[in-house]
Amino acid sequence: MSFCEDKSGNIWIGTFDSGINIFKKNDNLFVHIKDNYLPSGMQNNRVRSIYQDSEQDIWIGTKVGGALSKFNRQTLSFTHYRHDPSDPFSISSDFIFCITEDRPGYLWVGTSHGLNLFEKKTGKSKSFFPVPDNPKSINSGEIYALLKVEDDLFIGTAAGGLNVLDTKKNVVTHYMNTPDSNSISSNNIWVIKKDNKNNIWIGSENGLNLFHRETGVFTRFQNNPEDSKSISDNDIKCIYEDNERNLWIGTIYGLNLMDSVNNTFTVYTTDDGLPGNYISSVLGDSLGYLWISTKKGLSRFNPETGTFRNFTVLDGLQDNEFSPNVQCKTKNGEMLFGGNNGFNIFHPDSISFDQKAPEIKLTDFRLFNKHVGIDTPGSPLKKHISRCNEITLSHEQTVLTIDYVAFNYYSPEKTQYAYIMDGFEKQWNYVGNKREATYTNLDPGTYVFRVKASNTDGLWNEEGVSLIINILPPLWKTWWAYSLYALSFILILLLIRHYSLKRIHEEKKREQDQQNLKFFINVSHEFRTPLTLIFTPIKKILSSNNIRECKEAAQDINLSANKLIYLINQLLDLRKTDLGQLPLIAVKTDIVRYSHEIFNLFKGIGESKNISFIFQSSNSTIQAWFDPDKYEKILNNLLSNAIKYTGNGGELILSISRTDISDKKTLINYQKKKEKRKYVEIKVQDTGIGLSKEQIKHIFERFYSRDASNTGTGIGLNYSKSLVELHSGHILVESELGKGSTFIVLLPLGNKHLKANQISKTNFNLNNYKFKLNQLESLEFDIAATDDFSEHKNTVEEDIKLNPDNKLPLILIVEDNRKLRKQLKDELKNNYNIKEAINGKDGLEKVEKYYPDLIISDIMMPIMDGINLCHQIKTNIDTCHIPMVLLTAKNLAENKVEGFKTGADEYISKPFILSILKARIENLLESRKRLKKKYKSTSVLIPAKEVTSNNLDEQFLEKLTQIVLENIPDCNFSPTDLEKIMGVSRTKLYLKINSLTGNGTGNFIRDIRLKYAAELILQKKYRISEISFMAGFRSHAYFTKIFHDKFGITPLQYQKKNSSI
Fold first, then answer.
1. 48 lies in some domain
2. How far apart are CA 764 and CA 367, in angstroms?
3. Where does the Response regulatory domain start and stop, copy by copy (predicted)?
4. pTM of the entire predicted model
């Protein structure tokens, strides 16, 4: 035989032929008392109550088959007091629920059948039972809880609520649950407890109650699912007050610590470390620990740290399940807890704890759940896994398992484990007593597997054991493979950048080409309109002998020619600017006088529009260095725009002053650095149409036009900006839409900003300087050709009726160029009635007012262009029949396609020959006449598409015809009925029907009736008199008359004539 003590203090005993035995020093921590089948032993293991009286006798109450038993702690034996049906002084039942002391020598015992006052000396009892008609008796025989306070015995019953027995007067007061919230919360009472303040606390199956003895009122504390600070459950199993006067309440779902000040509760559950949530009993020891029995074991709780130490049957407990409110703390500090397998008795101070953390070892390593040998093919192990600090795996070894164990020989099944794979996860995996860890599909890299364990008493070996695991990457994930990828990626980026730059370059080239194309289209428009205005006067001069007419025509030619020369010069100057071939030759002169001279040249044109012209200067003279030619072009451009876009009766102010750029907040973006130089400020201010915020952003960009129609070349302000910057100056605009604009030019004073070759070598004499009039003459052309740009003037005045013959076709001319509009009007007025409009919006309003027979429209116009106007007209059922002729400078194929797609009937490019335009007009009007004639001439109903020129008219005419046919038997069906069904006004319906058929609304209905009748006549199914009524005619005679008027023969003659065919 041999002996050995291990690190935990356990004794190992080796025998000769009986194996190894272990003596555990911590075994039998809890004394377990249960039925030993002896007369002096327990008679039933199902303990329901335990109580120690003032004489230190311990009393045990068990369930059915047991007894009220006095426990001898020294001999561990029992004296039993049972129910004897033949003895009225025996205890009333062997099912003991609760015990409490009345006075020394006497106990109150609650049973399943009555209340007993037990005399210890004699063993005899006086029993109390409910008497049905006696309100002074107890009202339930099932007594679950007892508490003696002074002369009052508080009795908790099943279904009988709270009974309070006055032991002096032998009177019982009953407190039952009622709908009143001040009553007790339930009639099933499980526990009654008095605290240090003499408060009576009652635990029921439906909440905790505080009983106010003076008033008989109860305060309820119940669970509120919406309030996390309420008690955790309403089924109260035990109540305990600790040494710190804290009240602890055990429920079937957690332990509750009550805050008596705020009436709130802090809850502890299995999430906090409890072995189970069903709290059976609570006791406190001398060290401040709470001992808590549950349905899943016993626990020691440290209220200061909030930690639990749990015990199970493996530690010697009677069972993991303890009965509710079955506990007792003796005078010497021992604790008793009962359950269904007897009870445990122990002293808390005698419970020792294992202070040594367990040692841990790795025991096995598996791949794909197969054991890995040492130095076998494909094995990463060169020695046993317990001796390895590091292993290396290939990328294919993706499923690995590591086994481990902690050396705990006392209760190995209570050892707890946790592991983590550093580099893969951030939190420990707490896995109970599981002794393996498996990982799958770990990415290539370096990881550290760590495992730790706790002993039986929850002390963790935090250092644990670790293993470095290297997982090699596949070939395509090695460093040199990534280097190759990086190099390839860089090459791809370079290629992408190359192609991106190439694409950007091509895109910019395309954008430039589009801008150039747009510019040349606009320039073409600007050229073609004057050319159109030249061709017609030339023909007039050649064909006229009237000297006055010839002179007027020559003046028109002169204006148009000057406009063309100005445009050509502007293009040439723009080209020179792009090539850097526009030199600055500055002279020193009085810029105030120079500006005033230019201002006076424009004054006459401004006054022709009734514009108030004002010149202002802060100084009578300001000497400045500037290029006279370039400055003249800058000021000409600004004054021309101001006059052009200011309506009649407006105001234009040109002001000159000295300024400092640093004083102007609006110019802060121009001040690249602290500029100290002085400037001369030239400000052109008008009350014209103004600019929107979006227009201001782009106003100085090349090819940008402020008009939505993109009329104009869009280079004037961009060219002016270039000329200002050539002077080292600045230009900006301040504007508000509808209120006017202010253009500000700042030119630096002095000549320090000029290079030597930019200063003129000759003296400048303003008296001898000749101003160029190209801009002025171009403006005269624009003013003569353009209507008022005021926002209040977007239509021409109603023209005087040019021809009193209202039977002549009405033509609407929509053209923003006033001279061209006048020219067209003069040429067409002898053969047509003429109406005029200055843009698409004005034209649309005139169409809806006059319903012309034909429309001639320019395409490029402000506010609404001709394409949009054509679309509006051709998609409106009221106007889609009106022929539309588009005049434009845009003569590319795609421009014509766009025009025809919108429904235009003719597309004529400028400059055009008037005789061709007249011929086209005649053809379109004649075509409409032929369609009307065809409709009138037929004697039968024909498809609408044969007499219409577009789908909308076809659908409209088919619908009209169908409506009339559906109502044709109704002789009262009238134009008014047709108007209601169509939802169209009388005038619009009349004009539409007349434009398509040449009939009025009434004649249209009658015409369909007659054609319908003619078809019925040809069928020869009905008599003529029947047909007249079928076609909606009241009178046969009237039918015969109008049939003869329509077809030139009577209905009968019509039948005979066609029957022979």
1. no
2. 101
3. 810-925
4. 0.46
Task: Please tell me the number of Cα atoms within 13 Å of 15 on its side-chain side.
Answer: 6
- Determine, yes or no, domain membership for 85: no
Domain membership of residue 253 as a residue range: 237-351
C-alpha 174/C-alpha 160 separation (Å) is 8
Question: Same domain, yes or no, for 916 and 978?
Answer: no
SS3 487: helix
978 and 919, same domain (yes or no): no
Structure token digits, residue 598: 């230019």
Which residues are paired to 254 by β-bridges? Answer: 251
**What torsion, rounded to 10 degrees, do the Cα atoms 579, 581, 585, 591 define?**
-40
The CA distance from 951 to 884, in Å, is 16
Other C-beta atoms closer than 10 Å to the C-beta of 373 total 11
Q: If DSSP codes are grouped into helix, strand and coil, which group holds residue 629? A: helix
pLDDT tens-place string over residues 372-384: 999 888 899 999 9
Contacts of 32 (CB under 8 A, 6+ apart): 316, 317, 318, 342, 343, 344
Report how far residue 877's alpha carbon sits from residue 993's, in angstroms, rounded to the nearest whole number: 11
903 and 829 within one domain: yes
Beta bridge partners, 60, equal 50, 69
Dist. CA 874–CA 881, nearest whole Å? 7
- Spatial separation of the C-alpha atoms in residues 609 and 688, rounded to whole Å: 12
For tokens 């957690």, the residue is: 254
Distance CA 641, CA 630 (A): 17
Distance CA 62, CA 48 (A): 5
Confidence band for 800, pLDDT divided at 50, 70 and 90: very low
Same domain, 283 and 425: no
Q: List the structure tokens of 937.
A: 């001439």
pLDDT, greater one: 284 or 597:
284
CA 715/CA 717 separation, integer angstroms:
6
Q: What strand order describes the sheet that includes 390-393?
A: 390-393, 465-471, 445-454, 416-422, 429-430
For residue 336, give the nearest of 32, 53, 46 by alpha carbon: 32
Q: 717-731 as b/e, with b when 16 or more CB fall inside 10 Å? A: bbbbbbbbebbebbb
Read off the pLDDT band of 671 (50, 70, 90). very low
CA pair distance 889, 900, nearest whole angstrom = 15
Is residue 700 within 8 Å of 735, Cβ to Cβ? no
- DSSP character for 839? S
**CA angle (66 as vertex; 62, 68 as ends), nearest 5:** 65
Q: Give yes or no: residues 713 and 767 share one domain.
A: yes
Q: How many helices (H) and strands (E) does the chain have?
A: 19, 52
894 with 923: CB under 8 angstroms?
A: no
CA angle (517 as vertex; 514, 520 as ends), nearest 5:
150
476-533 pLDDT per residue, tens: 878 888 888 899 999 999 999 888 888 887 777 666 655 554 555 555 455 555 555 5
Q: State how far the Cα of 1052 lies from the Cα of 1031, in Å rounded to an integer.
A: 16
Q: Which of 927, 955, 978 is the last residue of a domain?
A: 927
Enumerate the β-bridge partners of residue 786.
817
> Strand 854-858 relative to strand 884-888: parallel, antiparallel, unpaired?
parallel
3-state class of 881 per DSSP?
coil
- Compute CA distances 666 → 311, 669, 739, whole Å: 84, 8, 19
Q: SS3 breakdown of the chain: % helix, strand, coil, rounded to 5? A: 35, 30, 40
Secondary structure of residue 94 in the 3-state scheme: coil
Q: Does residue 151 carry a pLDDT above 70?
A: yes
Q: Which residues contact 841 (CB under 8 A, 6 or more apart)?
A: 794, 863, 864
- For residue 107, the one-letter residue type is L
Report residue 1037 CA to chain centroid gap: 76
Crossing angle of helices 479-543/774-785, nearest 10°?
Answer: 80
Q: What is the CATH number of the domain that holds 288?
A: 2.130.10.10
DSSP state, residue 372? -
State both tokens at 863: 């506010």
